[in-house]
Amino acid sequence: MRQPLRYPWLDVDVDDPSAPAIAVRVDVPETRAEVPAHRHRKGQLVFALGGGVTCHVPSGLWMVPPHCGVWIPGDMEHSNVATANARIFFVYIEPGAADLPDRCCTHSISPLLRELIIELSDSVEDDEARDGLLIRTLLSELPRMPVQRLHLPISSEPRLKRIAEALAQDPANRSTLAEWANRVALSESSLARLVVKETGLSFGRWRQQLHLIVAIRELASGASVQQVSGDLGYGSVTAFITMFKKALGKPPAKYLGSIARNGGSAFVA
Fold this sequence. Notes:
By secondary structure, the chain is of the alpha+beta class. It has helices at 111-122, 128-141, 158-169, 177-183, 188-199, 203-220, 225-231, 237-248, 252-262; strands at residues 2-4, 21-27, 33-38, 43-50, 53-57, 60-64, 68-72, 78-82, 87-93, 105-108, 147-148, 151-153. The chain contains nine helices and twelve strands.
């Protein structure tokens, strides 16, 4: 089923209990688009065939680069922001229909699973036997996909939430830990401990995760490495490429290229 990026979808009941899985192909306009915060009983796989999608759940931000998918369990509030001209699919899965985790995670998407999702979303024939076979194969293949990770842990702690919102609005902000500590009325050491306690990451690593999420989203939408480097406040393109390669094992162009060729297997924790 093909829909504009507007939820709830027209003429599609994603929580229909008679359907173990429902695939929706979404048209994204020439500008960035958002599905506001919502929830549904079925779990949801957000799959990007082109462009990128950022999923926001209460515990963090998850990036969906091309040829990868983010799993969102049922009844979890979430919103989705897609880059301009993205080609994305939402697969809604009945609770218990597949052996999937009860937490958000990123899956590599194999070429077989990709084609199953596309075929199911484009199915217009009233062929229950064929659709049933596609769904059974999809539900069997999805749990076998490698679980990867590229997300930004977000805390509900008010001071960290304030910092996260500020950095999301201005990723190029290079304020030091000491400067942030002063703004939220904490000592530098207290803020450092609070970040680790709430996110499991040091402040520097946490901010780097944000940069990686923004970088992959913008690169996937067609921005140049030079543009992304400047938007993130790096002093040089070389410094940005070095950070990216150190974190993800490959420079930006090779990283995105290998994802496209290998169905997400370039993803690294």
